[in-house]
Amino acid sequence: MVIRVGIVGGTGYTGVELLRILAVHPEVSVSCITSRSEAGMPVADMYPNLRGHYDLAFSEPDVAVLGDCDLVFFATPHGVAMRMVPELMSAGVRVVDLSADFRLKDLDVWANWYGMAHESPEWAEKAVYGLPEVVRDEIRTAQLVANPGCYPTAVQLGFLPLLEQGLVDPKRLIADAKSGASGAGRQGKIGMLHGEIGESFKAYGASGHRHLPEIRQGLCGAAGGDVGVTFVPHLIPMIRGIEATLYAELKNPADFDRLQALFEQRFDDEPFVDVMPFGSHPETRSVRGANQCRMALHRQEQSNVVIVSSVIDNLVKGAAGQAVQNMNIMFGLKETMGLEAPALLP
Amino acid sequence: MVIRVGIVGGTGYTGVELLRILAVHPEVSVSCITSRSEAGMPVADMYPNLRGHYDLAFSEPDVAVLGDCDLVFFATPHGVAMRMVPELMSAGVRVVDLSADFRLKDLDVWANWYGMAHESPEWAEKAVYGLPEVVRDEIRTAQLVANPGCYPTAVQLGFLPLLEQGLVDPKRLIADAKSGASGAGRQGKIGMLHGEIGESFKAYGASGHRHLPEIRQGLCGAAGGDVGVTFVPHLIPMIRGIEATLYAELKNPADFDRLQALFEQRFDDEPFVDVMPFGSHPETRSVRGANQCRMALHRQEQSNVVIVSSVIDNLVKGAAGQAVQNMNIMFGLKETMGLEAPALLP
Amino acid sequence: MVIRVGIVGGTGYTGVELLRILAVHPEVSVSCITSRSEAGMPVADMYPNLRGHYDLAFSEPDVAVLGDCDLVFFATPHGVAMRMVPELMSAGVRVVDLSADFRLKDLDVWANWYGMAHESPEWAEKAVYGLPEVVRDEIRTAQLVANPGCYPTAVQLGFLPLLEQGLVDPKRLIADAKSGASGAGRQGKIGMLHGEIGESFKAYGASGHRHLPEIRQGLCGAAGGDVGVTFVPHLIPMIRGIEATLYAELKNPADFDRLQALFEQRFDDEPFVDVMPFGSHPETRSVRGANQCRMALHRQEQSNVVIVSSVIDNLVKGAAGQAVQNMNIMFGLKETMGLEAPALLP
Amino acid sequence: MVIRVGIVGGTGYTGVELLRILAVHPEVSVSCITSRSEAGMPVADMYPNLRGHYDLAFSEPDVAVLGDCDLVFFATPHGVAMRMVPELMSAGVRVVDLSADFRLKDLDVWANWYGMAHESPEWAEKAVYGLPEVVRDEIRTAQLVANPGCYPTAVQLGFLPLLEQGLVDPKRLIADAKSGASGAGRQGKIGMLHGEIGESFKAYGASGHRHLPEIRQGLCGAAGGDVGVTFVPHLIPMIRGIEATLYAELKNPADFDRLQALFEQRFDDEPFVDVMPFGSHPETRSVRGANQCRMALHRQEQSNVVIVSSVIDNLVKGAAGQAVQNMNIMFGLKETMGLEAPALLP
Predict the structure, then answer these.
(1) What is the DSSP string of D202-218?
(2) Lower CB count within 10 Å: N or C terminus of chain A?
(3) A to B CB pairs, distance under 8 Å
(4) What job does this protein perform (chains A, B, C, D) (predicted)?
């Protein structure tokens, strides 16, 4: 079987990362990649790492052409997928949307954070939030998968076992997260110039960030009830990688003794989650370019605070890699297909 | 008045930073700088930025020579100052120790974290912990000042107003701190190679770091009682700068309205603490090379968690700059003398 | 004496660098700084390193106000200064133009590289090309100084002694130069995003760069005749610093023995040129933030190629620092005033 | 067929890169990886990117065990392979040596640059210098392949067409090369700390570098006679990547018109050399992690200097990737096997 894939909005970092991964996927053929602004330009001219791998040029988005695909990935800014998805759904095409359009179930919250009304409430309801470690079975049969955000992936995976087992105070969760600059996309913003963010570090969105409601929604699901979570993202002077340091109060300090086993069991069958030995310090470089989340647990003396450090590559397990993982699940392929290569270290 | 200054252990990053700052200090003459390993080498050969500024060469440490100074800075690994300080005290020399030897009052805790018994308990007791924003008056007359650590400076300053006023739960403090690589000093460790830490980010010391007891001691002082603080440091792929994101639970959410004014008042007369407008995001580059701490407050909706982001240059306000600030206070100079230049941005 | 200074176009990296340097210059008062796009914004809001140093806000450029200054710096894109300078000249104001408008004497060449006709040929002729190491005396009395470009400064200084003495083949000069990203200025160009240039290195403008005619003009002056020079700039994934590796063929290999002495003599009285020992490798960090050019000579066995490695900070000796140096000369101040601080290392 | 592979000296960056590439090579089984200093440590403990990919631990080097392999890679410092290779040759094992031991044919030159006498002159003579683009047929049957150095790979490939066709003055070649820090290996040297080389750029080895004789040997081969080449390496503040800017004088300027076609033809059948359009600027990131050399030609007006910019990943086409390419050739596999993935960009 060869899956005919279309990519909408391929000029950003998520788009090129999809192309990089799919270039060596044995069961995929990329049949079109769209960009309004760059229509006509060969993708390998924009991304020279793809020279020799693709003959494709960017094309104007055309639902007729996309409707001929087995699967369409949206790698677009928010607001695009919600307008195009209904027609593709009608055409029987399956979609993995890497944008935020279908991630939130509460559309008032969505409208509030994204500054526009949602235009496809029907599909927002039907969409499966594609975190395979939580809802693998639903993904298998989904027609529309909302691919999780980068921060939400790192944060949710790290908190999951604690909340699912009800071991921590769900009202006192703190996620201090840090990301490389590629998370901001590939637009000509002064604030993302090398001269602005090189050799510097800062928090941003500390009073509220779009990923907060997505994180909250996921953590509520895991906890089976309301949660209180503080989420502060930071910008690291590097390109790829997210590290999230998570803090939660253990209800019963005696549970510390079984946390490591709990985490290992929770993710034992997960090909893309690696629980490192207690007290390890996962490095973002250990997942650079790889569809992996690595995490480790820590405890400080005389404290009942569980500390989890969780790392992913924001463009892979936080975006394009997870999207391909979802595609593999949707089409009954081996879940790791095309995602086997180790991270690039150093 | 010209202060004759000696520097013990000048080959590390703290040493060269002292030399950089003192090169333009109008009331200081550096009369000796010691290094056992590099004795005889001109300092400008090791640090070419100092070519044309110093004719000095490193010399063997010699208490007779140091005893002739008005002030001696120790920029040594722990364990050195505590052996040399008593003799210098007897000689009437004043000392600012940038190492950890005299920072902790509880010498059992010190011995536990630094792996050796303290050899100068008398002076450990007499030493003034030199955070000018807290104990300026004691510094004026101190013969021995223990210069605060880098993380403790950023963390304490950010928590101070909250704890002094008793506005937050002192048992639930979290300090998620991040530092550039110069904080690890200038030793040939594989783990600090550019190839190891470039383009990567990680937590370290998450199960316990030497700065934790120092932070706890300072915060207890501010709170006037015991505190519970979780402190996790991280390594940023850059050279200079610390950002600490601090989390505390407000006892009374209504207090949010007066926090900004409280912080501004607390540091109104402080030349080296800058409270930025509510909701700002201090960047480490805004203090690069400058003896400044900049901080800002944040609140997330429906939350009673106060968020403080605090930045310093670990080598300046976190080490050499604060040491010179202490020297200025000790010798009755203008506190900002030699420390007026703005940060290097970009 | 206090020099009243105006800055036109202060929002770029050259503008903020001027402000950083002038903040501690004892004889300067910045009376206005203009920006059409940011008029009304306090400079310290855009550049938080200047908080506490300046109360100024950006203002609309106004020749009446600028005409009241003793000196105006232009830190504008090309094409701006040439339109405003004539009026300021008439008003008796002195100008240091950091843009390229008055650097080239051949206005056809200028028009060709900058894509517009020159609008002030009269002042292009009168302007003094402000490389103090070559034409200090003319700068003293100049009303209009064209501040040299960054690459041209590093390249000219390194070739000067060889060409002035006629020791090398002037037709076979090669300048392989590398610059940090701040050289490209502070505009929202995709190509200068951290995500684009971080962790990567490339040549650019290898078929022709605007600094080539400026370099050629300067080298012709030094050689007293025509030269042939190949100049290839490269982009380094860092913020500040230029390194130029220069290659020239010695006419008489025996001259190798006297090159070091020749270079040392040539720059012996120059406060801002440092000839390091033969075989040294100047690092850009050794001049970071400092108005210095450091250089060193090399020879490979069995070769008559002289190799010169020359480093500057592109924003300081390559722009704002040299501009202040020129101002000091023009106003009879000590040439090093405000420029004494050592480079920031590490 | 599965090739049983041994790796001697696997703790360095070249070793981990071999493991990364071989992890997804379909015809290879790594049966042992040696390290005296780390014997017993699981490789995935040292290199967490390999967690889940290898169960191997480092072992003491043992010729009996290595003798059981089909192929042994040496990723050792110089001086090791020359002592172990003869015994492996006798055992019929094939070897790809990534160190410098067998690269030079003139053993006096070797001894001079590497500071020791060569201990295996017989095999130094028999070894094939493994640049497939030059001697592919000899590699097929070689028992011992000397894998080229990183700089020599980038420099030779770029000069090859010019010298083979005799179009340029062979006595006036200049190679200005720049490398990321991983080229210096993974030893705890102060000079390679992030704090030392981050945000800085410098030349090194400008008076003579070990790769110079290797470059000269290769270029002499291409030119069919003696050459004069000046080679200056530089250190880039990044991890992976080499860019070499090459300068040569065209004997007949009219030849410029056919250079592009010449280069394209020369490398038309080469899977790992990509000649970009005339005037392109290859970026090192376009080959990050990939076994590729990309190059482009430039000409400046009124000049007969050919400029070639050539980029590789020093750890891949400059080391481990080229070694696997050589292995593929030696064992009759598809030359691109295991080396198909595009570079990691951004």
Answers:
(1) EE-STT--THHHHHHHH
(2) N
(3) 159
(4) Catalyzes the NADPH-dependent reduction of N-acetyl-5-glutamyl phosphate to yield N-acetyl-L-glutamate 5-semialdehyde.
What is the number of other CB atoms lying within 10 angstroms of the CB of residue B270?
Answer: 15
Which subunits sit against A, judged by 3+ Cβ pairs under 8 A?
A: B, C, D
Q: Which DSSP letter does residue A299 get?
A: -
Determine phi and psi for A82, rounding to 5 degrees. -60, -25
Q: Which fold has domain B151-312?
A: Dihydrodipicolinate Reductase; domain 2 (3.30.360)
pLDDT, tens digit only, all 346 positions of chain B: 799 999 999 899 999 999 999 999 999 999 999 999 999 999 999 999 999 999 999 999 999 999 999 999 999 999 999 999 999 999 999 999 999 999 999 999 999 999 999 999 999 999 999 999 999 999 999 999 999 999 999 999 999 999 999 999 999 999 999 999 999 999 999 999 999 999 999 999 999 999 999 999 999 999 999 999 999 999 999 999 999 999 999 999 999 999 999 999 999 999 999 999 999 999 999 999 999 999 999 999 989 999 999 999 999 999 999 999 999 999 999 999 999 999 999 9
Query: Given an 8 Å threshold on Cβ–Cβ distance, is C194 in contact with A192?
Result: yes
Question: String of b and e for B111-138 (b: at least 16 CB within 10 Å)?
Answer: eebbeeebebeebbeebbbbbbbbbbee
Please, which residues bridge with residue D234 across strands? Answer: D178, D203
Chain A partners within 8 Å of C239 (Cβ): 194-195, 198-199
- With CB atoms and an 8 Å threshold, state whether A188 touches C184: no
On chain B, the residues whose CB falls within 8 A of the CB of A237 are 236-238
Distance between D117 CA and the closest CA of chain A, angstroms = 33
Task: Please choose, from the candidates A130, A128, A110, the residue with its C-alpha nearest in 3D space to the C-alpha of residue A119.
Answer: A110
Q: What is the CATH number of domain D3-126?
A: 3.40.50.720
DSSP letter (8 states) at residue C318: I
b/e per residue A219-254 (b: at least 16 CB within 10 A): bebbbeeebbbbbbbbbbbbbbbbbbbbbbbbeeee
CA dist., res. C337 & res. D139, Å (int): 65
User: What residues of C are in contact with residue A199 (Cβ under 8 Å)?
Assistant: 238-239
Measured CA angle at C55 (ends C49, C59), to 5 deg: 100
Strand partners for C28: C3
Q: Which residues pair with B173 in a beta bridge?
A: B229
* B3-147+319-330 under CATH 3.40.50.10190, yes or no: no
Task: Report the top-level CATH class of C151-314.
Answer: alpha beta
CB pair distance less than 8 Å for C200 and D309: no
Domain assignments of chain C as residue spans, ordered by start: 3-126, 151-314
The answer to whether the CB atoms of B245 and A232 lie below 8 A apart is yes
